[in-house]
Amino acid sequence: MTSFATLFFVWMALLLRIAHASFDILPSLSGQEQMAIRSQRDLMSNVTIDQLPLVGVNLRNVIFNDESVNDTESLEAFQSLMQNGVQSFRLDLQQNDSVYNLANTDIELGTFLLAFESFVNMTDDNLSANILTLHLNISNAALYGNSSSNGSVVPSSGSVPNITYTLDQSMGRLRIYTPDDLRNDQLAGATYDNSGLSSSGWPTLNNFLYSKRRRVVITELSNTLNYSETPYIFDSSILHYDVRNKTLETPNTVAQLMNISSISWRYLEADFTPAEIREYTNMGFSPIIANQYSKDNFTSIETILNHSVVWSWDTDQPVTTHTATPKNSDSLVAYNCAVLKYTVSNHSAFWEVNNCYDKYQALCRYTERAYEWAVTEASDTYFAFDRRSESHCPDDYRFALPRTPLEQFSLIMHLANTTYQNIQIWVDMNSIAVSNCWVTGGPYATCPYQKVVSRRNFVTMLTPVTVCCFFILVLVSYLNLLRVPIHSNRKNWKRLLNEVSKSELDGVPS
Ligand SMILES: *[C@@H]1O[C@H](CO)[C@@H](O)[C@H](O)[C@H]1NC(C)=O
Ligand SMILES: *[C@@H]1O[C@H](CO)[C@@H](O)[C@H](O)[C@H]1NC(C)=O
Ligand SMILES: *[C@@H]1O[C@H](CO)[C@@H](O)[C@H](O)[C@H]1NC(C)=O
Ligand SMILES: *[C@@H]1O[C@H](CO)[C@@H](O)[C@H](O)[C@H]1NC(C)=O
Ligand SMILES: *[C@@H]1O[C@H](CO)[C@@H](O)[C@H](O)[C@H]1NC(C)=O
Ligand SMILES: *[C@@H]1O[C@H](CO)[C@@H](O)[C@H](O)[C@H]1NC(C)=O
Ligand SMILES: *[C@@H]1O[C@H](CO)[C@@H](O)[C@H](O)[C@H]1NC(C)=O
Ligand SMILES: *[C@@H]1O[C@H](CO)[C@@H](O)[C@H](O)[C@H]1NC(C)=O
Ligand SMILES: *[C@@H]1O[C@H](CO)[C@@H](O)[C@H](O)[C@H]1NC(C)=O
Ligand SMILES: *[C@@H]1O[C@H](CO)[C@@H](O)[C@H](O)[C@H]1NC(C)=O
Ligand SMILES: *[C@@H]1O[C@H](CO)[C@@H](O)[C@H](O)[C@H]1NC(C)=O
Ligand SMILES: *[C@@H]1O[C@H](CO)[C@@H](O)[C@H](O)[C@H]1NC(C)=O
């Protein structure tokens, strides 16, 4: 009898599970993973925004491809991608009367943008802010128009949705870096291109994030908008957007690297394996993941993200000081400095935390040239590689680090040419001033967050940003409320409230 009862409960549990089968969203990043991402952002602060390695997804393939998934869940999954370091999104839009919908869904563009905006709001501080890009592929065919005799669909009302209005309503102009902003920056000499000229090109990440504080760049991949009426959106001519097969050469020489870096916003949209996405990221592409996922296997995108979002640090790096084990308790120990570990067998390079008092060779760069490297002959402690004093670097070379995957690629080429063994070399990245705050600029560089840090415990500052914006969830739940019996929404509300109070406890960086 008891076994029957057990069976019954197991059966009920299974049934409930199936009934609640839902979109599993990606777990939040650990503090350590966030640190790796933040340190990458900070070391790229002098890189122009068109040269950044941004990891992106084709949202139609990855999330919005299953009509049985509800809006709240798919928008939560979308937010969890942003939390996990995805910064670029290809968005397919389809006209439904006077508004745009995400293709194949009944989610309006405005609703999507509110979910997007709520993430931007949550991360609108110096610790978490980063650039985000949207790439719109707008289909001319209206969803609910009258089919003409030859099968093409004509918009029923004849009017095109006003995308400027939608952006104004849901995101606001102040978030968007517009073509006008670019023109102003170019006139003000705040932009750079490959040749160092400032009347063309793009602003540096530093300038983009902290002086303008406009964090979103929107481009259209298709060619349907009327640009005299859409002041917020760049046309596709600024992009180099490859789909499936790359059209850029694989660089083998410094000249080819320079050629590649003269091209702005290099995207490659494709189905990637983890190894492929790493390869293309290293070659200087921003990958757009177009693999098909369903709600059941969505979280497996993590393996691909793990091979692309962090291109610098090794997995599980940077370890925090107290978890690194000292080799020898007699000697001085400070696990606050970064070495680049080069492995000959597969020509790979990753960074890891090491003891600043150990002696290694170090990496030097020829003045400001991005792709010219030298490794010091002398090995020394990290503190000996101060930019301000006599340096072990050759004349006109300075202690340095690779600032982009493409720079690291050129370094690997250099190492492959000059050494036949695995080596570890110091790179200009350390957390000596404040442990957990990784900075570049020699051993005496200061942590830019020192003010924030001294006010609160830095470790609590590093707790993952819990994306649970009450506003958007209420909004979407309200939309759901219109469709489903109130009864089934009770649970949802309880969960929402729980999540909100949890995120209040976690504390959000200000
Ligand atoms: C950016 O460039 C400025 C001026 O050349 C320099 O002082 C600063 O250290 C650089 N920052 C990084 C992160 O490389
Ligand atoms: C299209 O818009 C109409 C109202 O304008 C709405 O009733 C309908 O559900 C929408 N269709 C989709 C697929 O969202
Ligand atoms: C984001 O913040 C702005 C102002 O700070 C506010 O007006 C807007 O409603 C917020 N949006 C969302 C979706 O939370
Ligand atoms: C954020 O960074 C900018 C530029 O570095 C600085 O002017 C501003 O004071 C910082 N804000 C906070 C709250 O630290
Ligand atoms: C935009 O979407 C259409 C299908 O809706 C597709 O044929 C086209 O290739 C897409 N454009 C880009 C640039 O991906
Ligand atoms: C279909 O017919 C419309 C007019 O009804 C015309 O504008 C359009 O070019 C035609 N499309 C094709 C593919 O023939
Ligand atoms: C479709 O066309 C018919 C006549 O051709 C017209 O009466 C109807 O209003 C049209 N529907 C829409 C949604 O425009
Ligand atoms: C679109 O909306 C904006 C306001 O957000 C308005 O200024 C503009 O005139 C509208 N454009 C058209 C073509 O109606
Ligand atoms: C892309 O590459 C594959 C093989 O790698 C080839 O079969 C296909 O024809 C190429 N497609 C285009 C559009 O070049
Ligand atoms: C995820 O599942 C869908 C359908 O079940 C399948 O088509 C797709 O290939 C799967 N994706 C991955 C990456 O396993
Ligand atoms: C590596 O060596 C080859 C010839 O030995 C040379 O052509 C190439 O430019 C070198 N690459 C780098 C990055 O130094
Ligand atoms: C949508 O998802 C939420 C959260 O998983 C759930 O509580 C709600 O019942 C779902 N709504 C519909 C219409 O399925």
Automatic annotation (TrEMBL):
<feature type="transmembrane region" description="Helical">
    <location>
        <begin position="458"/>
        <end position="481"/>
    </location>
</feature>
<feature type="domain" description="MTC6 partial TIM-barrel">
    <location>
        <begin position="27"/>
        <end position="311"/>
    </location>
</feature>
<dbReference type="GO" id="GO:0071464">
    <property type="term" value="P:cellular response to hydrostatic pressure"/>
</dbReference>
<comment type="function">
    <text>May be involved in telomere capping.</text>
</comment>
<dbReference type="InterPro" id="IPR051008">
    <property type="entry name" value="Telomere_Capping_Maintenance"/>
</dbReference>
<protein>
    <recommendedName>
        <fullName>Maintenance of telomere capping protein 6</fullName>
    </recommendedName>
</protein>
<keyword id="KW-1133">Transmembrane helix</keyword>
<comment type="similarity">
    <text>Belongs to the MTC6 family.</text>
</comment>
<keyword id="KW-0325">Glycoprotein</keyword>
<feature type="signal peptide">
    <location>
        <begin position="1"/>
        <end position="21"/>
    </location>
</feature>
<keyword id="KW-0812">Transmembrane</keyword>
<keyword id="KW-0732">Signal</keyword>
<dbReference type="Pfam" id="PF25506">
    <property type="entry name" value="TIM-barrel_MTC6"/>
</dbReference>
<keyword id="KW-0472">Membrane</keyword>
<dbReference type="GO" id="GO:0005789">
    <property type="term" value="C:endoplasmic reticulum membrane"/>
</dbReference>
<dbReference type="InterPro" id="IPR057530">
    <property type="entry name" value="TIM-barrel_MTC6"/>
</dbReference>
